[in-house]
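wait is this the right file?? whatever heres the structure
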């Protein structure tokens, strides 16, 4: 299985589990996917009609659901990138175990992608890095607006997904991980994404 196929599989798994929870999203999701695939104006018109027919309450739920789906897609991509980086490091013999390989950032890979995929020259990359400016910014509150509880749920989803594709997983383990993913996805959707009240000094200390 190629790296791109693995990302597609990760993404499809998480989206399928989430769509099982919210059946009403299928129509909007399918219309969006069809328009994205062929860019047919008719599909865009159909999508617009469905969206404008929603009442304000349903619109909020739909918006939250699609935001959640994007979060799941990002988590799938993170796991795929970590897997690819881990395999590369192990093949090079840079690490003695998988856990250490998965935590390393690979700047060399980033440079190669800038050159091969985006057509940037080494000189352009060097000039861009050389001209970077760094400013110190002091804020009264943390810039991280996402709730810590939601970040923890995302972390558990990421961990389950990574374990799900290990080579020595048993059928019982797979079933348990599938059920864990289902629970965490449901819990994440029920969690408000942002904090509605400014954090207290105690909250900032805990963060």
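ok assuming it is, sequence goes like this
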């Amino acid at each position: 299985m190629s790296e791109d196929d693995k990302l597609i599989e990760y993404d499809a798994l998480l989206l399928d589990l989430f769509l099982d929870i919210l059946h009403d999203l299928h129509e909007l999701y399918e219309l969006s996917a069809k328009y994205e695939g062929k860019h047919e104006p008719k599909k865009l018109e159909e999508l617009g009609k469905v969206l404008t027919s929603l009442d304000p309450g349903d619109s909020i739920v739909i918006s939250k659901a699609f935001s959640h789906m994007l979060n799941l897609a990002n988590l799938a991509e993170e796991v795929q990138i970590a897997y690819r980086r881990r395999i590369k490091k192990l093949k090079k013999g840079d690490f003695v175990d998988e856990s250490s390989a998965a935590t390393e950032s690979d700047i060399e890979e980033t440079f190669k992608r800038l050159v091969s995929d985006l057509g940037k020259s080494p000189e352009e990359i060097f000039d861009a890095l050389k001209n970077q400016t760094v400013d110190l910014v002091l804020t009264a509150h943390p810039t991280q607006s996402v709730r810590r509880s939601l970040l923890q749920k995302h972390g558990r989803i990421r961990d389950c997904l990574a374990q799900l594709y290990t080579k020595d997983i048993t059928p019982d383990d797979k079933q348990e991980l599938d059920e864990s993913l289902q629970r965490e996805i449901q819990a994440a959707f029920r969690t408000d994404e942002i904090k509605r009240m400014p954090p207290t000094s105690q909250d900032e200390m805990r963060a």
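The CA atoms of residues 160 and 180 lie 7 Å apart. so i think its the right one actually
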